[in-house]
Write a structure and sequence with these properties.
Order of helices and strands: EEEHEEHEHHHEHEHEEHH
CATH class of the largest domain: Alpha Beta
Radius of gyration: 18 Å
Number of helices: 9
Number of strands: 10
Strand order of the largest sheet: 6-7-8-3-9-10
Largest sheet: 6 strands, mixed
Structural class: alpha/beta
Shape: globular
CATH topology of the largest domain: Rossmann fold
CATH architecture of the largest domain: 3-Layer(aba) Sandwich
CATH superfamily of the largest domain: P-loop containing nucleotide triphosphate hydrolases
Oligomer: single chain
């Protein structure tokens, strides 16, 4: 039986007269990278924000670990196992790689009863940070200031910060944006390694990368899902070729 960790059913989101999401349904299973593709304005980032709890849907339901979380706030969903990254960098540039990850871990494990102890000595947060840094391959940069990292390493750090909260679901919004070929390959290897223990939602414009790493693809146009399936089926879908990939793709 498929281990579905996050699902959305008939999600709609409107901004005054604009319907950004129109009856969108999808599910994310452990062991898969589920890519969502579409042109600018298709509703991809709005979908991520609704799934993460930053925006409330006007209609529909969201389930995390089979529990309905539609009314839950973003922090509550994060504590329940939902991690995400953003299109723009959200790191602390003046702190080290380890400090960035430790702070992220602390956000999900707040020991109010131990307020007098230095946060830097929190065993849980340090162990979670070390594990996340190891998973993304940033050990050589553990004491480097985050602001001095290359663009690709900063994107890896953002994922490490998400992993430091020990999520089961990762929502990644354009993690490959601005990367060169070598950095892209490194990131794709990372995504492939993460899916064994996570359900991964990937928003991405790089079609070569999407078809290389995705197990499932959902295609959106004007807030609606027009196709869903395995990569080859999406390549061969005439509606997708016309609406997104281009005729003859």
């Amino acid at each position: 039986m498929t281990d579905v960790l996050l699902s959305a059913q008939n999600i709609s989101r409107r901004f005054r007269g604009l319907t950004a999401l129109d009856q969108v349904s999808l599910s994310l299973a452990r062991g898969t990278v589920h890519a969502v593709i579409g042109t600018n304005g298709a509703g991809k980032s709005t979908l991520v924000s609704v799934l993460a709890g930053e925006l409330a849907p006007n209609e529909g339901s969201i389930f995390l670990h089979r529990q309905e979380v539609t009314s839950w706030s973003q922090p509550r969903r994060a504590r329940a196992g939902l991690g995400r990254s953003y299109q723009r960098s959200t790191i602390f540039p003046s702190l080290t790689v380890h400090e960035n990850c430790r702070l992220a871990a602390q956000a999900g494990h707040q020991a109010f009863w131990n307020w007098a102890a230095p946060a830097s000595r929190c065993r849980y947060s340090n162990e979670a940070a070390d594990q996340a840094i190891s998973l993304v391959g940033l050990e050589p940069d553990v004491l480097q200031l985050a602001g001095l990292l290359s663009h690709g390493r900063k994107r890896q750090l953002e994922i490490a910060m998400s992993l430091a909260t020990r999520p089961s679901v990762l929502l990644l919004d354009e993690p490959l944006a601005g990367m060169g070929p070598e950095e892209t390959e490194r990131m794709l290897d990372l995504l492939a390694s993460l899916k064994a223990e996570h359900a991964v939602l990937l928003i991405e414009h790089d079609m070569d990368a999407v078809f290389k790493v995705a197990d499932e693809i959902t295609v959106m146009v004007n807030g609606k899902v027009i196709a869903h399936g395995q990569p080859q089926a999406i390549r061969d879908n005439p509606d997708v070729q016309t609406a997104y990939l281009g005729d003859g793709e």
